[in-house]
Design brief:
227 residues; alpha+beta; BirA Bifunctional Protein, domain 2; 3-stranded mixed β-sheet
Length: 227
Amino acid sequence: MSTGGWDVRQLGQVDYATTYAAMQAFTAERSPDTPDALWLCEHDPVYTQGLAGLAAHVLQPGDIPVVQSNRGGQVTYHGPGQVVAYPLVDLKRAGYYVKEYVYRLEEAVLRTLRIFGITGHRVAGAPGIYVRLADPFDHSALRDVAPGDDPFRGLGKISALGIKVSRHCTYHGLALNVAMDLTPFARINPCGYAGLQTVDLSTMGVSTDTATVTEVLGQQLLALLTP
């Protein structure tokens, strides 16, 4: 992977809480001259709660730990077979604001999916990336949702996003589902939406592995986040 001056770390499968603490320490200790970093990993099974997370959205965690974090958003699940990307970016130095940063994160996922033949979609007011369940290869744009209609009808979530910004510096990031056990998602309301279906590349008919997707997603993130 061409890094272009970034500190890119492929961490393998790691514990969430330890990685979360390391991101906080990196961000607290970095100086204006610290190179931006991109950490790529998979996590041991874990549910993570965002700052807005409601306990009611954790239905039956069972033996999977629930970890409170300071990222935005509600509860989600991380586990093997899912690529997690943590960009640690100095936004002030990069020259763009949080809204643009989130847009670039989502665009990196959209471009990654496109390389694997899948068309991803944004849903207004719901960070992350979604795919059409009936035809994930359909390139047409989603239709506008009428008031009162379900904005997720016919869609599955394939990528979750939640970030934290401290002193203009980002941590946390995004997760892209590749080939994982999806059943733990049924034990929560994913990202706070009851009944929201979660999918991965495998269930969408794409045969690949996390190493391949990590490489592609990493390159897309570096290309889009570099000023």
